[in-house]
Task: inverse folding
């Protein structure tokens, strides 16, 4: 946020501590332009709620030493649920999004919300004491109406369209519930870790998703469908494009996901007589140097590069970061993405562009969901209620 105009709410001061971790009273006054009495009031409220802790050691301004405070990320916890097409991770996270403990389960998302969320609830119970939970973040592999907490016309999530995910969890937990697209959640934490305000996060697993963070904000679009490159049409090559006519799980033909996703690679390798059942096994074949797997994954990278190139030309990101199971294919995949992005976009758009793989591992999604949930809880309209509950 800009500090040219003095912040007028306790959430603004808290956001400073969440961003900078440790500040003195004098620091807050200098950065915000608020008066000493107003800063004291804000700090008193946050300290009483346990969201900041006085640790001493602040610089003196000539009088008594100025108290030093730091954000107390362990004041409470957040539950984060990262649901993918073929499995989910449930994690108990601190207020910074750091996972404390987690549970992983296999699931087929097309079995419907009641079955999948029932399994999620059981996994939450396995995490142990959740009495200090202040919020729940749920990530799903489809377009999301963020304000309503519902999935909207998901291409592969049979039975989920319009399902009230937030309300379902709200009937089990008396805390705020945030529902987000899984690729958006991943992009949010990648942007923070990589310190980039303009980033495209590709999530490549069973399916394909893209999260967009620009000017420091998640770009969701009018219907929550921004970044859904998996269901855009593959770029034609020379002559009749057989790849573009492949049937996709969403019911359309020629989607990027139909030729470059984990499930598509499993299909193609199986058709060649190679026994493979999951994207993880595809990765293992690539690492082992299987010629057919390497060829197909490299072509998948080119297909993805074609799809991403248009976004690069339009949005001009600083970073493209690739995560998900297929990211473990390394340069076999990444070389194809880079090849097509640099071929199809201008030198200006790519001269400082960084294309890399994620370093966050499988828990990046739950960390992103926890951060987004914390943002909602500590937003201007929500924090007053939260402070009333805990002070």
Result:
């Amino acid at each position: 946020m800009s500090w040219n105009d003095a912040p007028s709410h306790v959430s603004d001061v808290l956001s400073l501590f969440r961003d900078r971790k440790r500040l003195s009273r004098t620091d807050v006054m200098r950065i915000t332009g608020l008066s000493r009495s107003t800063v004291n009031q804000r700090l008193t409220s946050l300290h009483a709620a346990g969201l900041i802790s006085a640790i001493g050691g602040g610089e003196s301004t000539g009088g008594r030493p100025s108290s030093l405070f730091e954000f107390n990320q362990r004041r409470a916890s957040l539950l984060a649920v990262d649901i993918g097409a073929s499995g989910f991770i449930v994690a108990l996270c601190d207020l910074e999004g750091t996972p404390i403990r987690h549970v992983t389960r296999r699931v087929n998302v097309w079995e419907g919300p009641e079955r999948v969320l029932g399994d999620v609830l059981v996994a939450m119970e396995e995490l142990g004491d959740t009495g200090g939970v202040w919020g729940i973040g749920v990530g799903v592999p489809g377009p999301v109406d963020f304000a309503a907490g519902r999935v909207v016309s998901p291409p592969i999530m049979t039975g989920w369209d319009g399902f009230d995910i937030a309300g379902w969890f709200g009937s089990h937990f008396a805390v705020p519930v945030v529902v987000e697209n899984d690729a958006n959640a991943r992009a949010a934490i990648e942007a923070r870790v990589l310190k980039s305000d303009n980033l495209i996060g590709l999530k490549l697993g069973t399916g394909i998703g893209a999260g967009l963070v620009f000017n420091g904000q998640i770009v969701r679009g009018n219907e929550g469908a921004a970044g859904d490159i998996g269901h855009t049409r593959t770029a034609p090559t020379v002559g009749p494009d057989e790849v573009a006519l492949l049937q996709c799980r969403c019911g359309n033909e020629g989607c990027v996901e139909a030729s470059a996703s984990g499930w598509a690679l499993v299909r193609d390798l199986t058709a060649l007589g190679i026994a493979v059942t999951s994207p993880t096994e595809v990765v293992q074949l690539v690492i082992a140097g299987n010629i057919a797997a390497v060829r197909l994954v490299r072509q998948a990278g080119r297909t993805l590069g074609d799809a991403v190139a248009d976004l690069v030309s339009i949005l001009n990101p600083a970073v493209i970061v690739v995560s998900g199971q297929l990211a473990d294919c390394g340069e076999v995949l990444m070389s194809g993405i880079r090849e097509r992005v640099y071929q199809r976009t201008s030198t200006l758009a790519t001269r400082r562009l960084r294309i890399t793989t994620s370093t966050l591992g499988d828990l990046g999604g739950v960390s992103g969901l926890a951060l987004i949930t914390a943002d909602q809880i500590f937003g201007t309209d929500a924090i007053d209620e939260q402070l009333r509950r805990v002070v």
